[in-house]
Design brief:
16% helix; 3-stranded antiparallel sheet; single chain; alpha+beta
């Protein structure tokens, strides 16, 4: 008998999906690769649970299946305070926005799927069932605020989980409200370099609104300092900040 997997309504991914990064992960633009993480690296103890009512042979099969999983975690939101704290080193990192319409997402096994949030775990895997990637899309509703989408792939033994990233897939970069000046300058330099490849990248600032206890995403006026060739310095023209609706 097949295990029942909860599912939500069929949804197309938003045009832009986001990922939060620590500041040192600007190195993804040096290699133009992005990591598909193993479930053991996630902070949710119950994530990707593949245990079930099975014998020793099936338990080993489920273990190897989970071991082969690689997951790229994305979100609908670029202005979530808790996610900035947890995944972008307390606002010192950045957020990258990816075009889900780009051919990069059309590659096998990489189309984003929405996470299904439930109040209780799904039934254990029956011993006659095959484990499936869809189980990696189920999480506790305690994580619902993350509005997560996932690209789930299977990786062969020894295969690198650092997957080549296409330049045009990067649509936006959001600068953390506490990002250090030299990291901001490096990010702006990356944007200039990518634009040489005709990549249309928009740059935003994450700005705290102390009246509402929320963060707003605004078009960034920051540019590299022309006098020092962007050597750790940035320039913000006075009065040039623009709110993006």
């Amino acid at each position: 008998m097949a295990t029942t997997i909860p599912s939500g309504p069929l949804r197309r991914p938003p045009t832009i999906l986001y990922k939060y990064f620590r500041p040192e992960r600007l190195d993804i633009f040096d290699t133009m690769t992005i990591r598909f993480s193993h479930p053991s690296q996630f902070n949710d103890t119950f994530d990707c649970g593949y245990s079930g009512n099975a014998g020793a042979r099936e338990i080993i099969q489920h273990f190897h299946f989970r071991k082969a999983l690689g997951i790229l975690c994305l979100t609908e939101s670029a202005d979530n305070h808790l996610m900035w704290v947890h995944y972008a080193e307390n606002h010192t990192g950045f957020v990258a926005g990816f075009r889900t319409t780009d051919a990069w997402f059309g590659l096998s096994g990489m189309m984003p799927q929405p996470v299904v949030y439930t109040s209780a775990p799904p039934p254990p895997i029956d011993r006659y069932d095959e484990p499936t990637p869809e189980r990696a899309l189920i999480k506790s509703d305690a994580w619902k605020y993350e509005k997560e989408w996932r690209c789930v792939r299977m990786f062969e033994k020894g295969e690198s989980r650092d997957v080549q990233l296409f330049f045009p897939a990067v649509a936006q970069l959001v600068i953390g409200s506490k990002m250090r000046s030299h990291d901001t300058a490096r990010l702006l330099g990356i944007v200039e370099s990518l634009r040489e490849y005709q990549c249309d990248i928009q740059v935003f600032d994450s700005v705290p609104n102390r009246r509402t206890w929320t963060f707003e995403t605004r078009r960034s006026p920051k540019v590299l300092c022309g006098k020092c060739q962007g050597d750790g310095f940035i320039h913000v023209p006075e009065g040039s900040e623009t709110r993006v609706q």
